[in-house]
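Schema walk-through. Below, the input block comes first and the output block second. Nothing else is stored per chain. Lengths vary across the set, and this one has 65 residues.
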Amino acid sequence: MASNKTLVPEAKAALEQFKMEAASEVGVTLSQGYNGNLTSKEAGSIGGQMVKKMVEKYENEIKTK
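--- output ---
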């Protein structure tokens, strides 16, 4: 079962902004709060974009070590 808990509560606002940016990049309009009207495809594209950006950031970090 999936959990929607933020592991680092202090990061909640930054994660919300990150999600909004990712949604914008893939052309999905999000509103503040609940977005239960999204299709699975839209939600998946947002999550996929977020993961893609996180992996890219991590790769850049380890490249510079």
